[in-house]
Task: inverse folding
């Protein structure tokens, strides 16, 4: 019966297995050297509610790490925690947090804005207003809040492109990515922001942020993948990550998109004109297939990309599954390590990392198959190359009814140490 159910699904569109090593940091082997034991540990950011999810993070100039996340699955009042010791512990929070953050209707995202005209950096936090189909409707548009003092104080939410405005959008995951733009080969004080309209047919939009007399200005949102609309719609492309070449200094942009219908691998596309046009998308190798990719460069020029694993190998599905009728399963919270050239050339990369195990309700110990309700990450890279990556999931603590609690954790990983585990 299982074979018949699975066979009705398509295993084309990039489906397959990966061949690069999977480094498992969810189970510590015996005789692990003392200096590598930290790789198998994680710290709790917040476990105060039965369900907390979808964090994002920013590194402040004084070394503090801010984590922001919703009080629920993808929506709810914004919560915050701050680490003063490089992600080892989280004891602080934003004091006098804006009251408007209590009404957040989506997972918050946070980014640093650097200026070329001498203006001090700003930190910007977004929260979209999707239609959750929960009877509450939506005002539309997205909210943003700014900090001019490295996160010590924040403005209240300002709403743009709502139903009250001339132009209205209903964004999901605003902003999935935010990329500083170049003009004539030099960075300018403009940023390209990305979101999608879920109920509108998975149309992906961009809007350009700039500032005039210190006030934020937004260009009219426009679909940027219209040339490839057929595949965008079929794959239900969304939640893109945009990566600039040459450690963030180059002239080429790479876009990695989630394929929400799970019958297509994730998509990758490239732009050499600052996002005005994009190449015909192609499927990523299975080693990178997943959802909500977040990419950072490490000091040695490699890319560390976290995501929610989505595995579509027909052979693996014979023995690995969460629900037998699905044409996919998840290995949970994973990271891909490789280079921009690997993305460009369609290579598998160097290795994958299973960062920690997220438990299914019937599991009592880590396995390859994991709970896929994880993988939205907040990542920062410290000066010594240590990546502090955080996500949400079922990491072992239980609720009063015996089910696994979903909460936010943080993990420190230095690729120089992970390299030592590759045999």
Result:
């Amino acid at each position: 019966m299982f074979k018949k159910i699975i066979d009705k699904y398509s295993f084309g569109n990039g489906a397959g297995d990966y061949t690069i090593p999977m480094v498992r940091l969810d189970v510590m082997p015996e005789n692990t050297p003392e200096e590598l034991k930290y790789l198998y540990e994680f710290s709790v950011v917040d476990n105060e509610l039965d369900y907390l999810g979808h964090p994002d993070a920013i590194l402040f100039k004084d070394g503090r790490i801010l984590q922001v996340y919703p009080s629920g699955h993808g929506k709810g009042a914004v919560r915050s925690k701050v680490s003063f010791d490089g992600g080892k512990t989280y004891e602080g929070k934003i004091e006098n947090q804006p009251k408007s953050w209590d009404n957040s209707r989506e997972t918050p995202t946070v980014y640093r804005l650097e200026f070329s005209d001498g203006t001090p950096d700003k930190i910007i936090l977004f929260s979209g207003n999707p239609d959750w189909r929960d009877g509450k409707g939506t005002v539309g548009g997205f909210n943003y809040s700014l900090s001019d003092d490295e996160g010590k104080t924040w403005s209240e939410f300002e709403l743009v492109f709502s139903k009250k405005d001339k132009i209205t959008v209903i964004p999901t995951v605003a902003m999935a990515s935010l990329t500083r733009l170049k003009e004539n080969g030099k960075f300018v004080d403009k940023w390209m922001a990305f979101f999608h309209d879920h109920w509108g047919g998975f149309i992906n939009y961009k809007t350009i942020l700039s500032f005039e007399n210190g006030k934020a200005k937004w260009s009219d949102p426009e679909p940027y993948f219209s040339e490839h609309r057929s595949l965008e719609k079929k794959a239900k492309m969304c939640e893109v990550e945009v990566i600039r070449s040459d450690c963030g200094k180059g002239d080429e942009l790479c876009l990695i998109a989630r394929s929400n219908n799970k019958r297509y691998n994730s998509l990758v596309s490239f732009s050499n004109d600052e996002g005005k046009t994009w190449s015909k998308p192609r499927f990523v190798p299975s080693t990178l297939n997943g959802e909500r990719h977040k990419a950072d460069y490490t000091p040695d020029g490699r890319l560390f990309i976290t995501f929610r694993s989505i595995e579509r190998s027909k052979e693996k599905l014979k023995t690995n599954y969460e629900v037998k009728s699905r044409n996919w399963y998840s290995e949970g919270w994973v990271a891909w390590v490789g280079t921009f050239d690997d993305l460009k050339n369609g290579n598998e990369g160097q290795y994958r990392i299973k960062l920690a195990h997220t438990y299914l309700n019937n599991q009592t110990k880590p396995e390859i198959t994991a709970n896929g309700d994880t993988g939205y990450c907040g990542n920062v890279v410290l000066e010594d190359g240590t990546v502090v990556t955080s996500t949400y999931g079922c990491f072992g603590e239980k609720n009063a009814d015996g089910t696994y609690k979903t909460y936010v954790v943080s993990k420190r990983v230095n690729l120089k140490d992970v390299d030592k585990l590759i045999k």
Q: What stands out?
A: The longest helix spans residues 229-235. Confidence is low (pLDDT under 50) at residues 1-10.
